[in-house]
Amino acid sequence: MSHIVAPSVLSADFGNLQRDIEMINNSAADWFHVDIMDGVFVPNISFGFPVLKSLQKHAKKPLDVHLMIVDPDRYTQAFKDAGAEVLTFHIEACPHLHRSMQNIRSLGMKAGVAINPHTSVELLQDIIADIDLVCVMSVNPGFGGQKFIENTYKKVARLKDMILHSGSKALIEIDGGVDMNNYRKLVDTGADVLVAGNTVFSSSNPAETIIALKK
Ligand code: DX5
Ligand code: ZN
Were both Cys, which of 4, 36, 48, 134 would link to 30 (CB 3.0–4.6 Å)? Predict the structure, then answer.
């Protein structure tokens, strides 16, 4: 299977959101990556359900929803209703992660766990068989356009090893600072899903950049 490219809507032009959604619809991209920030778990606030509803209305590809919020369990059903196909919670925000993941799956969504740069992949050992995706943060969450943290490669390699040995089918997603210089090495190290915000939306030709990231 070739890797998945998920442009991050956070870097879209919100004054021209429909235009940018159509660009992704008509591009080689596979998913929409949707960042929800609450100003508590992370220092920034992104957008909420009204914007997500517009996204749901126009998007023709799966919505990969990444919650950077405290107590995400409160909103599992609401994000299902808003069209999420993949729903990802941060391990750092979940005292009962196994139950949270079961709830997501019971509603028919794919269950993802995101880990911050300081969080070891080894903490996933006892949940890896019961989840569908691991989002490895390659920047500290909160903002688009940050610099990629090099230690990510080591984490991806260890995570890939864990997944192969556990028989898990979890996908490895890389989120933050993915660009034309690092994407190939990330895929070669084991990444299945590349999130790209700044690299896609700041380029002169976003559709061409998405094609380049697919190669
Ligand atoms: C960061 C978000 C990312 C962000 C990535 O907190 O989770 O999804 O949009 O943006 P870039 O690709 O610009 O680093
Ligand atoms: Zn994200």
Answer: 4
**Residue 175 CB less than 6 A away from ligand 1:** yes
Query: 126 C-alpha to center of ligand 1: Å?
Result: 27
175 tagged catalytic: yes
Name residues whose C-beta falls within 8 Å of residue 18's C-beta, 6 or more positions apart in sequence. Answer: 54, 58
Block means of pLDDT (10 residues each) for the chain, 215 residues, are 95 97 98 98 97 96 98 98 98 98 98 98 98 98 97 98 97 98 98 98 98 97
d(CA 170, CA 84): 17
Q: Quote the ligand 2 centre to 194 CA distance (angstroms).
A: 10
Our answer on whether the CB atom of 52 is closer than 6 Å to any ligand 1 atom is: no
Whole-prediction pTM: 0.98
